[in-house]
């Protein structure tokens, strides 16, 4: 019964997913933003079918009138906020609501759109305003929004109530997939007992993970902007304006100092900049992360207010050959990390102190890049990457696709929608240099060939200007997706999951791995994961698994081979993982995955120092650093 419900949610999830742009809400003279972060009322639906909230219409009045509610911070995962294991491990619908006053002038001005936007909620969401359903969305990690002006204006003298129901159930057709298993043996399990099975290695945190905002735009408004940059025609832009049939558009590009660098008119055009400042990665140039501001103004009728949206734009190119990855026509070597959005108490909720701390650690480490393993990260994080020059491989939540039933048409259709939502959201970030459509799918299964062929060609059609990859751990000879990627990304855990304890096998196995993959596909290769678990503070010499010394020697053995092969076709190395992170409970995990080079609280293990020495050495060899950044004087 529960599975049937889950299947129906999926079908409903598809509607509305693709209409309109998804510009990040920014304030301007024509746009105001009201952030609804803070405390919301919260109630998990513990009823046996998890359906009481719908049967009793919890959205039609205050949640507190339906039964007991607790305070819940937004943004945050709900799992680790209380002392209840039942809530930590809850599967099903949870309900949030809060009341607020909308500024009177927003309501009285019929020339304004009022948009409600959820930065992300995991996994399936339904949103009501004053009891009226305004939107549904399938999938975590990506934003969704609706114009709620009409609903709000029906009742201008009352506070407005926003209700959000979120369901974290994963099925074979969700992304990531999972399955609900009912335990029917009454001698072993209580009645109605079920568990959520998953095939990915991070805790399935849930709730409202990113800010909920109300923002305004004029009725004639900029719905979307797309830029493509190059050396000759520096910025080719396209603007879509909604609310007007023939909008005139004025575009001004200003530089970092606020000076006008170029202007243009029309909803599409080209901006050429004299002595253009390129966007460079961190440690590749003395002035990384240079951003212009593209100010777009549609000209509405004289009586109406004019919209203004200012998009940060970096001018850079990306190109791949069969042995190299180029940024601005210079070979780029990824020396970086894989991350997770994960921290004590807030789980996957956006947390500014953590975000800034992590960027400080990345810079300390000399990392120039990361992969958003295994789902899209907050837009605020990508904006930091743009500004600091941290290069990003932008991954969708295609992780744990291991069951053959997750390669069917329904799964593929949803995966395509997710890639569209991701490209729509992130296409203008100069930091994003490649899309990753999946992590370690069972790509040797027969349907994987057609699945990845379609998925990758669809992604290239959405964005012809960026390379596309997926991350493999299959046998190179049997990988049915690899023929379609631009860059081979491969994960391996020599001396860990295979040959545990035998670090001496790493060099030979790693060399074979690279030679096999490059020999067969003639593509550049990124070692997209490698590493070893360390319980911080455990020591042994000679090294043993789980000690700091063991992680050090695993890293050193990998690095020897990277140094040989980066002269040929290896274009990057991303450690697994930047920091320890929470996982489901299991015999292989001691309160989470401990492969971090930092603890979950961001303190370095000894592996961090090995990597820091290496990354600064690589940067000194390959980059152009100003004297003050030269390690160890930094
Ligand atoms: C890789 C997965 C990653 C895991 C890692 C591990 O891509 O999500 O956390 O293994 O086991 O295969 O540590």
Automatic annotation (TrEMBL):
Gene Ontology MF annotations: beta-glucuronidase activity; carbohydrate binding
Gene that this polypeptide is encoded by: GUSB
Family: Belongs to the glycosyl hydrolase 2 family.
Keyword Glycoprotein: yes
SUPFAM superfamilies: (Trans)glycosidases, beta-Galactosidase/glucuronidase domain, Galactose-binding domain-like
Annotated Glycosyl hydrolases family 2 sugar binding domain residues: 34-218
GO annotation, biological process: carbohydrate metabolic process; glucuronoside catabolic process
Keywords carried by this UniProt record: Glycoprotein, Glycosidase, Hydrolase, Lysosome, Signal
Cellular component GO terms held in the UniProt record: extracellular space; lysosome
Chief location category: other
One family name in Pfam for this protein: Glyco_hydro_2_C
Name under which the protein is recorded: Beta-glucuronidase
All residue ranges annotated as the Glycoside hydrolase family 2 catalytic domain in the record: 318-619
Subunit annotation: Homotetramer.
Role noted for this protein: Plays an important role in the degradation of dermatan and keratan sulfates.
InterPro entries the UniProt entry points to: Beta-gal/glucu_dom_sf, Galactose-bd-like_sf, GH, Glyco_hydro_2, Glyco_hydro_2_AS, Glyco_hydro_2_cat, Glyco_hydro_2_CS, Glyco_hydro_2_N
EC number: 3.2.1.31
Subcellular compartments: Lysosome
């Amino acid at each position: 019964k529960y599975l049937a419900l889950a299947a129906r949610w999926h079908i409903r999830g598809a509607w509305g997913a693709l209409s309109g742009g998804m510009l990040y809400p920014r304030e301007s003279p024509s746009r105001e933003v009201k952030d609804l972060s803070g405390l919301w009322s919260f109630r998990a639906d513990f009823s046996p079918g998890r359906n009481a909230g719908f049967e009793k219409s919890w959205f039609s009045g205050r949640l507190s009138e339906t039964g007991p509610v607790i305070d819940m911070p937004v943004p945050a995962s709900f799992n680790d906020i209380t002392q209840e294991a039942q809530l930590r491990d809850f599967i099903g619908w949870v309900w949030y609501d809060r009341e607020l006053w909308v500024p009177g002038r927003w309501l009285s001005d019929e020339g304004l759109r009022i948009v409600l936007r959820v930065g992300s909620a995991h996994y399936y969401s339904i949103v009501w305003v004053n009891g009226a359903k305004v939107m549904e969305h399938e999938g975590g990690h990506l934003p969704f929004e609706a114009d709620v002006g009409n609903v709000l204006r029906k009742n201008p003298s009352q506070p407005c109530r926003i209700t959000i129901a979120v369901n974290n159930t994963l099925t074979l057709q969700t992304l990531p997939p999972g399955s609900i298993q009912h335990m029917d043996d009454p001698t072993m399990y209580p009645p109605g007992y079920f568990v959520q099975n998953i095939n990915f290695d991070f805790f399935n945190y849930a709730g409202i993970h990113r800010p909920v905002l109300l923002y305004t735009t004029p009725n004639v408004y900029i719905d979307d902007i797309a830029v493509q940059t190059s050396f000759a025609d520096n910025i080719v832009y396209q603007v879509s304006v909604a609310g007007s049939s023939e909008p005139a558009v004025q575009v001004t590009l200003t530089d970092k100092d606020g000076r006008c660098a170029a202007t243009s008119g029309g909803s599409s055009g080209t901006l050429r900049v004299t002595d253009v400042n390129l966007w460079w990665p961190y440690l590749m140039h003395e002035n990384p992360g240079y951003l212009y501001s593209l100010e777009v103004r549609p000209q509405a009728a004289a009586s109406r207010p004019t919209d203004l949206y200012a998009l940060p734009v970096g001018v850079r190119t990306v190109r791949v050959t069969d042995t190299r990855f180029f940024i601005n026509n210079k070979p780029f070597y990824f020396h970086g990390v894989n991350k997770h959005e994960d921290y004590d108490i807030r789980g996957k909720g956006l947390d500014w102190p953590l975000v800034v701390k992590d960027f400080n650690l990345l810079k300390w480490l000399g990392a120039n890049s990361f992969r958003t393993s295994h789902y899209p990260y907050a837009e605020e994080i990508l904006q930091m990457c743009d500004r600091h020059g941290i290069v990003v491989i932008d991954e969708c939540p295609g992780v744990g696709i291991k069951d053959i039933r997750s390669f069917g048409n329904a799964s593929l259709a949803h995966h395509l929608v997710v890639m569209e939502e991701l490209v729509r959201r992130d296409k203008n970030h100069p930091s994003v240099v490649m899309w990753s459509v999946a992590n370690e799918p069972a790509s040797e299964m027969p349907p994987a060939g057609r699945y990845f062929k379609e998925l990758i060609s669809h992604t290239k059609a959405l964005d012809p200007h960026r390379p596309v990859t997926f991350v493999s751990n299959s046998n190179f000879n049997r990988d049915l997706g690899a023929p379609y990627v631009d860059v081979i990304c491969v994960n391996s855990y020599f001396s860990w999951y295979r040959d545990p304890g035998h670090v001496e096998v790493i060099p030979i196995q790693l060399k074979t791995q690279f030679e096999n993959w490059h020999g067969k596909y003639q593509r550049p290769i990124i070692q997209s994961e490698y590493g070893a678990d360390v319980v911080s503070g455990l020591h042994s010499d000679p090294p043993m698994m789980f000690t700091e010394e063991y992680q050090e020697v695993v890293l050193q053995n990998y690095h020897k081979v990277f140094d040989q092969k980066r002269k040929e076709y290896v274009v990057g190395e991303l450690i697994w993982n930047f920091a320890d992170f929470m996982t489901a409970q299991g015999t292989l995990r001691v309160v989470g995955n401990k492969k971090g080079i930092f603890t979950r609280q961001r303190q370095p293990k000894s592996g961090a120092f090995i990597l820091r020495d290496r990354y600064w050495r690589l940067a000194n060899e390959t980059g152009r650093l100003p004297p003050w950044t030269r390690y160890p004087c930094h």
